[in-house]
Write a structure and sequence with these properties.
Rossmann fold; about 375 residues; about 15% strand; two-stranded antiparallel ribbon; 9 strands; alpha/beta; globular; seven-stranded mixed β-sheet; 2 domains; Arc Repressor Mutant, subunit A
Length: about 375
């Protein structure tokens, strides 16, 4: 058993509060949700990008080809949210320098707010799933913007940390990749992570698989544009990988995708099958506990559970026999499942941004299953 399983105990306490305090907290939550919708609009239309210097609503609207009245109302919502500053006498608006870098560019956290309307594309379908006579889950194609959102977030996360943090956290991985090995990324989406690795380590061969044909097509086009000849993207169900891939890969990654799978245990068994004996498996999952009370105060917990409710869980349950693990299935459950599936020498590290746990494990001789 991993020593990590017995360490790093979470603080599971929550304080009492008065009725008035609770009411205030709920109002803050509702205001936060409303602000997220407005942030999403601003990020979508690039409004923040022109607000580094004071401008009137007319100037902002005209520079972006937008309607002034809508821009003005949006600006007032941003002022009330203390995101934008207004000079009432001059009638101008701007984003202060300390906030501006977080609202534009590659570290744009405001873009995370686009998650809210994206999830709400399937609001009615998810609501129907609650009913005893309702559907079991929601089809993946009910989230047409999901792949674009995940690609954007992958660009932010992987461009920033994949080489500097992720690779360096796996013992001897960089040296292994430099010598030339075969690597598989399960649930690759549009392929940002394996493309970064393929660029950095040209002697190694990389495979990316995903069940989404449109995501794989986009990945193939981008890889061709980048002239990457050491990467291959293919449409596959991760629960049924090609028979001739047995013992093919020295290294396999699954980045925030195992909890989405209809058959996660079968996927993990398939990963063990295609890993060479002694091969390494890297698995990213949201940094949280399997015990809900222990997630109180965890900044990833609230949106993690809601993302799970509106996307990850229903797309898994849509399939017959889908497990619906959910985004927040948690560290304790992940460790248990990895051990049950025969992975060993498990090491757990928190990512530098505290967004994920990185589970690194080894595959030895695969038992029959």
């Amino acid at each position: 058993m991993s020593s990590e399983k017995m360490n790093n105990q979470h603080n599971c306490k929550s304080g009492d509060e008065s009725t008035q305090q609770f009411a205030g907290r709920v109002r803050s939550m509702i205001n936060g949700g409303a602000t997220a919708l407005a942030l999403s609009i601003g990020a979508h239309h690039g409004i923040f990008e022109v607000m580094d210097t004071p401008k009137t609503s007319v100037q902002i609207a005209e520079s972006l080809g937008l309607k002034e009245r809508y821009v003005r109302e949006w600006l007032h919502a941003m002022v009330a949210s203390r995101i934008v500053e207004m000079n009432e006498e001059m009638g101008t608006y701007h984003v202060p320098p300390n906030r501006f870098p977080l609202l534009v560019g590659k570290f744009n956290i405001a873009a995370m707010a686009t998650l809210v309307p994206m999830l709400c594309e399937a609001y009615d379908q998810v609501s129907d799933c609650f009913k005893t006579d309702g559907p079991q889950g929601v089809a993946y194609d009910q989230y047409p913007k999901f792949q674009d959102f995940m690609h954007y977030m992958s660009n932010i996360m992987h461009n920033k940390t994949l080489l500097t943090d992720f690779v360096g956290s796996v013992p001897e991985l960089e040296e292994l990749l430099e010598t030339g090995v075969t690597v598989l990324d399960v649930g690759c989406g549009k392929g940002r992570a394996p493309m970064i690795l393929a660029q950095k380590f040209p002697r190694s061969s990389f495979y990316g698989i995903d069940i989404s044909a449109s995501a794989i097509s986009a990945a193939q086009i981008e890889a061709e544009e980048m002239s990457l000849t050491n990467i291959h993207f293919q449409v596959h169900d991760a629960a049924s990988l090609p028979c001739d891939w047995t013992d093919k890969f020295e290294y396999v990654t699954a980045l925030d995708c195992i909890h989405d799978q209809a058959e996660p245990l079968q996927v993990l068994h398939e990963i063990r099958r295609v890993l060479k004996p002694g091969g390494t498996f890297s698995m990213l999952e949201i940094a949280g506990s399997s015990r809900p009370n222990c997630n109180i105060g965890n900044p990833r917990a609230i949106d993690g559970y809601v993302i799970s409710l509106f996307h990850c869980m229903p797309v898994s349950l849509y399939f017959d026999g889908g497990k619906g693990l959910g985004t927040m299935w948690g560290r304790e459950n992940v460790l248990q499942v990895l051990e049950e599936c025969g992975f060993s020498e498990i090491i757990v590290r928190k990512s530098r941004d505290s967004f994920n746990y990185h589970f690194v494990s080894k595959s030895h001789k695969c038992p029959a299953h």
